[in-house]
Specification:
Elements: E1 24-29, E2 32-36, E3 41-42
Antiparallel strand pairs: 1-2, 2-3
The protein binds zinc ion.
Zinc ion binds at residues 15, 17-18, 20, 35, 38, 40.
């Protein structure tokens, strides 16, 4: 099995900026997103 398979929805990723768990990512543009609850701006990973 691979670690980065698509069945990782149950494991929340960590914010790449501050390292806190990501609850939700609000997209603000095609290449911009805001992480909740920490509020950092990130480039969202393409969601298939
Ligand atoms: Zn953050």
């Amino acid at each position: 099995m691979t670690r980065d398979g698509p069945d990782a929805a149950s494991t929340l990723p960590d914010c790449p900026v501050c390292g806190r768990p990501i609850a939700t990512v609000t997209l603000t543009g095609p290449t911009d997103g805001v992480v909740s609850p920490c509020g950092c701006r990130i480039v969202p990973v393409a969601l298939e």
